[in-house]
Amino acid sequence: MSTTVKLIGSLLIIGLIFLSGFFVGNIGEAKVMKEIKIGYEDIENSSKIIHESVFTDSENPTIIDNFIMIYLNAKEIDDPNIDLEKPDMYIELNNPNASVGLIDSKLWFVEDTAIIGRRTSESWDQIDFYKIDESDSEYIKEIVEYREE
Fold first, then answer.
1. Which pLDDT belongs to residue 106?
2. d(C-alpha 83, C-alpha 71), whole Å
3. 81 pLDDT higher than 80
4. How far is the C-alpha of 22 from the C-alpha of 3, rounded, in Å?
5. Cα–Cα–Cα angle for 132, 138, 143, rounded to 5 degrees
6. DSSP category for residue 89
7. What secondary structure letter does DSSP report for 5?
8. Which whole number is the average pLDDT over 74-85?
9. Beta carbons within 8 Å of 58's beta carbon, 6+ residues apart
10. In angstroms, rounded to a whole number, what is the distance separating the alpha carbons of residues 117 and 131?
11. 68: how many CB neighbours lie within 10 A of its CB?
């Protein structure tokens, strides 16, 4: 065989290996690296949280990114002036693939804005409070289809 035929054969084999790896990689299911769970306190059992909405980065990457930006842009406050025992919703940001909780928080809607209480220890004894602006508050209400009670 001539070297030209060997070269073309080698290139074809390399091309087939590359293409098969490319298609297997694209067909494979994407792993969820981040998820946001939105929950509400159970009316009958106040220690139970019912997660009504779950958003993942594989299905809703924009929602995940927007929530992260809301947390990053929130302004820390000292005196939230809210009922700590009655949040409007619970928000968790997790990495289910690594079984890691990234952010555990409660949210209170106040007038046109909202207050986020972010847990900073193993229990809810230590909370940092943040205020988000009106557009972020409206975005959260829209995404989770929040209804005033």
1. 93
2. 21
3. yes
4. 28
5. 110
6. E
7. H
8. 89
9. 30, 31, 32, 33
10. 9
11. 16
pLDDT at 147 over 80: no
Distance, CA of 114 to CA of 134 (rounded, Å)? 7
Q: Is the dihedral of CA 109, 111, 113, 116 positive or negative?
A: negative
Average pLDDT of span 47-65: 87
How many helices and strands, by DSSP H and E, does the chain display?
Answer: 3, 7
Query: Which residues lie across from 108 on neighbouring strands?
Result: 115
> How high is the mean pLDDT of the chain?
86
Q: In this structure, which amino acid lies at residue 34?
A: K
Q: Are 51 and 94 in contact (CB under 8 A)?
A: no
Polymer length of the chain = 149
State both tokens at 148.
């005033």
Domain range annotation of the chain: 1-29, 35-144
Which amino acid is it at 21? Answer: G
Give the orientation angle of helix 61-73 with respect to helix 134-144, to 10 degrees. 150
Among 43-52, 53-62, 63-72, top mean pLDDT goes to: 63-72
Q: Please report how many Cα atoms fall inside a 13 Å half-sphere around the Cα of residue 94, on the Cβ side.
A: 16
Query: Using an 8 Å Cβ cutoff, are 95 and 33 in contact?
Result: yes
